[in-house]
């Protein structure tokens, strides 16, 4: 029987400091897509919930959510195709459906979201809405858009976590919570802005409450995710930029919107501008957060201390440490 | 492939090559002399262009890394103070040389990530990218735990070692293993290679090379975290990181459930809050 343990412990050795991993050639198009899919998906889900609770009050929000959903599905698809290095073969994404690949099943989630949103939007055309069958179909499609929207808003966390990139892989749960809270916050903020613009202050206020709760949840999710990455020994390698973009995330997608909404509420609704600023900050924050995570991951993959730090036996989930060796 | 292929591999590698059997590489780094014949043979057979990076300053390694156009890479590690007492014997620095290659993992993270089906598992249990399918999404690149597969900027497709799929179909062993002058790279069926590698480790231990161990064979370091085995496995003499290998790679697909589950649960929680907050409230 040969020895099944590693010699010694890892003392930070590497091969001339060469990057152990390769990076995706992903740029702002991918982080932008992730933010757009999150915002649009959550907007549809929230509009559906609002419609179920009070159809008349949320008629405007429903129309806006359909528009956001259509725009999101269209620009999102365009961004994804533009990111391919052989874009004329984009349709090859539909050759198979692979449950182990979020890139694969995400394509179908996005497709379902686009189709459901388009059908749901038929109900917003007044000439068609008078036909009962169309109205009914649009209602069903809206539910479909809400469910696929929840998927579109969260599968992207699996897309990033299911890689070997140390920064994305170190906190799969944290990333899932970060992305879904940010999506709901941005989606609610976008709908709230529409309600403010349409002069429907009551539903605007309700949506801002949802956005504020999601923003609080996002702060918690970001703190938890950061702790997981530090525990895995990944954050240290990119600490400089990580602290900066974490601070930006907590400020733009946390403190600023929560303060804006609180100010408007404390003044009895006499500071709607503060709420509008809060909503805009949440939307901007959802883009900043995704882009920050993308870039930190690209940095971490080039660093042996981060990549090898995560790929140590102690970080293997649910495995028998002794069998895998590596005296720690 | 014609049914009466001559099976040259019987003479060069001592094995026939038949569909349905699992093949792989055993790279015994203890006998690698760093001649780079494998790198050259690979480039020649697969018609891969040279990289133009100049001198790296990393010992005799100017190849530096595996890439879309370099599928074998010989690492050169020069160690001083390598004796247990921390001393370097006169003129006796320690040389570690190792020919890196795609590990043809089982299961393979790149294959599991590929959304087009361009990456597939062949009848020889190797992993190959079909160039006429790949659309250059690049998701296989961060999926690989070993930093092997990469996109080529010229044609916009993912490329990596095919274990000479075309040669295997013709009954020839891969170009790199055929050319290796010290048999550091051995090609063969895994059910023969793995026991041979275990014997090699045992015999090295007997001769006092206590550091020798297998990387990537089933149950050994490198075959961890849901990756059951690396069909191209190695005999190493120092920590995996020294050779630019991760000590405990893991299968990325196992993180899908964690991320998606937590994401959807959080989303559902917020949707519940929204149900309470939106609409007419008393």
Describe the structure in your own words.
Chain B: Pfam families: Fer4_11. Chain B: GO terms for molecular function: 4 iron, 4 sulfur cluster binding; metal ion binding. Chain B: Keywords: 4Fe-4S, Iron, Iron-sulfur, Membrane, Metal-binding, Repeat, Transmembrane, Transmembrane helix. The complex is a heterodimer of chains A (328) and B (282). Chain A is an all-alpha fold. Chain A has one domain: Up-down Bundle (Formate dehydrogenase/DMSO reductase fold). Helices cover 72% and strands 0% of the residues of chain A. The relative contact order of chain A is 0.15. The C terminus of chain A is likely disordered. By secondary structure, chain B is α+β, with helices and mostly antiparallel strands. Chain B folds into two domains: 231 residues, 2-Layer Sandwich (Alpha-Beta Plaits); 32 residues. Helices cover 26% and strands 17% of the residues of chain B. Chain B is built from eight helices and twelve strands. In chain B, the strands form five sheets. Chain B has a four-stranded mixed sheet. A two-stranded antiparallel sheet of chain B has the order 2-3. In chain B, a hairpin with a 6-residue loop joins β7 and β8. The relative contact order of chain B is 0.19. Chains A and B meet through α1, α3, α5, α7 and α8 of A and α3, α4, β7, α7 and α8 of B.
């Amino acid at each position: 029987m040969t020895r099944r343990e590693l010699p010694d412990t890892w003392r930070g050795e590497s091969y001339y400091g060469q990057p152990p991993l390769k990076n995706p050639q992903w740029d702002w198009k991918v982080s932008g897509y992730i933010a757009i899919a999150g915002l649009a998906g959550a907007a549809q889900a929230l509009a559906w919930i609002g419609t179920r609770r009070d159809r008349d009050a949320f008629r405007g929000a429903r129309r806006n959510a359909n528009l956001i959903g259509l725009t999101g599905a269209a620009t999102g698809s365009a961004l994804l195709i533009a990111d391919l290095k052989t874009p004329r073969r984009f349709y090859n994404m539909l050759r198979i459906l692979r449950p182990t690949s979020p890139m694969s099943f995400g394509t179908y989630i996005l497709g379902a979201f686009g189709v459901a949103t388009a059908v749901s939007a038929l109900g917003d055309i007044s000439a068609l809405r008078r036909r009962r069958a169309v109205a009914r179909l649009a209602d069903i499609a809206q539910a479909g858009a809400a469910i696929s929207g929840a998927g579109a808003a969260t599968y992207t966390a699996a897309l990033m976590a299911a890689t070997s990139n140390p920064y994305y892989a170190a906190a799969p749960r944290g990333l899932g919570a970060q992305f879904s809270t940010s999506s709901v916050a941005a989606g609610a903020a976008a709908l709230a802005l529409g309600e403010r613009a349409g002069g429907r202050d009551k539903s605007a206020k309700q949506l801002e409450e949802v956005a504020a709760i999601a923003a609080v949840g996002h702060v918690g999710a970001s703190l938890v995710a950061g702790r997981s990455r530090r525990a895995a020994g990944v954050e240290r390698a990119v600490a400089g930029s990580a602290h900066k973009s974490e601070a930006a995330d907590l400020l733009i997608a946390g403190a600023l919107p929560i303060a804006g909404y609180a100010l408007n509420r404390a003044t009895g609704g006499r500071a709607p501008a503060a709420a509008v600023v809060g909503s805009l900050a949440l939307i901007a924050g959802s883009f900043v957060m995704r882009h920050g995570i993308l870039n930190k991951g690209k940095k971490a993959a080039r660093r042996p201390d981060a990549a090898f730090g995560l790929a140590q036996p102690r970080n293997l989930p649910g495995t028998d440490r002794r069998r895998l060796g590596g005296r720690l | 492939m014609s049914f009466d292929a001559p099976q040259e591999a019987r003479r060069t590698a001592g094995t026939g090559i038949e569909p349905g059997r699992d093949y792989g590489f055993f790279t015994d780094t203890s006998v690698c002399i760093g001649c780079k014949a494998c790198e050259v043979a690979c480039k020649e057979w697969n018609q891969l262009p040279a990289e133009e990076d100049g001198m790296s300053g990393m010992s005799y390694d100017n190849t530096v890394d595996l890439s879309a156009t370099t599928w074998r890479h010989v690492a050169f590690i020069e160690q001083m103070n390598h004796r247990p007492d921390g001393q370097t014997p006169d003129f006796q620095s320690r040389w570690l040389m190792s020919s890196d290659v795609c590990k043809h993992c089982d299961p393979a993270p790149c294959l599991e990530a590929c959304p087009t089906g361009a990456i597939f598992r062949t009848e020889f249990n190797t992993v190959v990218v079909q160039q006429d399918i790949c659309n250059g999404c690049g998701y296989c690149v961060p999926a690989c735990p070993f930093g092997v597969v990469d996109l080529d900027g010229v044609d916009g497709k993912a490329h990596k070692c095919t274990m000479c799929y075309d040669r295997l179909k013709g009954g020839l062993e891969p170009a790199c293993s055929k050319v290796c002058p010290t048999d550091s790279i051995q090609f063969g069926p895994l059910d023969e290679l793995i026991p041979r590698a275990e014997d090699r480790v045992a015999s090295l231990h007997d001769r006092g090379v206590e550091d020798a161990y297998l990387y990537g064979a089933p149950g050994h370091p490198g075959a961890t975290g849901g990756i059951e085995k690396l069909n191209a496995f190695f005999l190493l003499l120092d920590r995996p990181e020294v050779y630019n290998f991760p000590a405990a790679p893991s299968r990325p697909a196992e993180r899908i459930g964690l991320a998606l589950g937590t994401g959807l649960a959080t989303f559902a929680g917020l949707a519940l809050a929204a149900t309470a907050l939106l609409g007419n409230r008393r």
